[in-house]
Write a structure and sequence with these properties.
The protein has 235 residues and is an alpha/beta fold. 36% of the residues lie in helices and 26% in strands. α3 packs parallel to α5. The two termini are 34 Å apart.
Length: 235
């Protein structure tokens, strides 16, 4: 579904990604593990064309996304839910959600149907639809951010550190929702430092260090890898 082949990315003279090759298959939930600055967000920025790659190719199924505009990539079905939520705090929850459907704005009936589906997935947001996004708790804001991304009708949903700064109970709820989204048919690429929670719901995972993929495996293989367990999983 989504594939990177020998992708490199530079910020000036700094090489943020070094010959990255990875894939997320149709219907998979794939996790990127790594410390801050390892390159996880750079992988997402490259895929969504927020940064132009220096080399390599990014494909979504049969379409070459390399060098295309961000709006074209969103229309193709690759949706990026960024770290830090990036909501519009003075706008209502529902207006934030509808901004996620901007590329489908001509399909009003489809957007109404999609909005109903999103509210069914996040019922706590129904009573808060007219509240400003900035007035919500951190966990509620994260739900709005994921819901807004779903309004873009993703074939592949990229989630960047969705558990960051959230209480353990809220993290559990967020990961349950991510698993439900995946089970409904959406391919998910999830960047996370919370390896223990993320690996439990993943089909596969990649370990990213210094802009490189250093390891790939299933939950069982990575959780049983002593170096990975010490660095990311704990216990």
């Amino acid at each position: 579904m989504l594939s990177f082949t020998n992708v490199s990315l530079h910020y000036g003279s700094f090489r943020a990604l070094d010959n990255i090759t990875l894939h997320a298959g149709d219907g998979e939930l794939v996790v990127l593990l790594g410390a801050n600055g390892a390159g996880k967000s750079s992988i997402f920025h490259a895929a969504s064309a927020l940064r132009r790659v220096s080399a390599g190719q990014i494909r979504l199924k049969d379409a070459d996304l390399t060098g295309r505009r961000p709006a074209d990539i969103v229309r193709a079905g690759l949706i990026h839910c960024p770290e830090g939520r990036k909501l519009f705090p003075l706008m209502s929850v529902q207006k934030n959600l509808m901004l996620g459907a901007y590329t489908h704005r001509a399909d009003r009936a489809g957007n109404r149907t999609r909005l109903d589906e999103v509210y069914a997935l996040f019922p706590d947001l129904i009573a808060r639809r007219n509240q400003t996004a900035g007035s919500l708790s951190g966990g509620q804001q994260q739900m709005v951010a994921i819901a807004r991304a779903l309004m873009g009708r993703p074939r592949v949903l990229m989630l960047d550190e969705p558990s960051l700064g959230l209480a353990p109970l809220v993290v559990k709820q967020v990961f349950e929702v991510i698993q439900r989204i995946n089970r409904a048919g959406t391919t998910v690429l999830l960047a996370e430092q919370n390896a223990h929670a993320a690996l439990k719901i993943a089909h596969r995972a990649y370990v990213v260090e210094a802009g490189r993929i250093v390891l790939e495996g299933t939950y069982e293989s990575l959780a049983n890898n002593e170096a990975v367990r010490r660095a990311y999983v704990g216990g």
